[in-house]
Amino acid sequence: MSEQGRILVVDDDETVRDVVRRYLEAGGFTVDVAGDGAAGLRSFAQRPADLVVLDVMMPGMSGLEVCRRLRETSQVPVVMLTALGEEENRIAGLQLGADDYVTKPFSPRELALRVGSVLRRARMPSVRPAPSEVADGDLRLQPGARQATLDGAELPLTAREFDLLAFFLGHPGVAYSRADLLEKVWGWDFGDQSTVTVHVRRLREKIEPNPAKPTRIATVWGVGYRYDPVSS
Question: Where the record puts its DNA-binding region(s) (predicted)?
């Protein structure tokens, strides 16, 4: 395997697979390809990848179903490929745990840059220098190990969810807009702000006793979100 990492590309379009593979290999990645969802799952089981590029619309098993099955056993970063106008599929993918998405038709160079960005963040010890452990009541986060626990049980967080939680814990009591969070956590100067909304919703489902009435991640109307510690 290359130092850059192994990427699995799952897409039923042979031309897309070939173009993406060539661009990623030119960037130093080792690339496996699969032409459908079932083949993609078999490939991942036999040779786990560091990141999966996954088309949403495929015959048979959709990319959304592949993402759901991957999340049952792995927190591997996933970048979804969605067609222009498929906002519902983009949001569904993010809700299932995808880390990022690229809209078709896309620039292969943009996809390669997105893949590199997601991998770098997945490998970072944290979104900023941090102590060995950050704690808020029964919620504990270890940036170096990229591990978070709630009441002693490990939380199954994706790379983006971990980064977002680490950022919130590092900046308690401060309200941030969705655009701010896209820049500071995702590293995007622009993008679909619903990405932040979906990740906040997923975090609430994992750390709030009642996600419908959150006590930790508060919505600041007209602004964005604020993390309110349960312990002072």
Answer: 131-229
How far CA 188 is from CA of 110, 113, 184, 192, 196, in Å, comes to 12, 12, 8, 10, 11
User: Average pLDDT for residues 40-61, to the nearest whole number?
Assistant: 93
Residues spanned by the domain of 28: 6-123
Cis-peptide, bond into residue 143, ω within 30° of zero:
no
- The verdict on 21 and 115 lying in the same domain is yes
pLDDT digits (tens, 9 = 90+) for 128-150: 444 578 889 999 998 878 889 99
The answer on 100 and 41 residing in a single domain is yes
What gap in Å lies between CA 56 and CA 39, rounded to an integer? Answer: 15
Q: 86 CB contacts (<8 Å, ≥6 apart)?
A: 56, 57
Query: 158 and 102, same structural domain?
Result: no
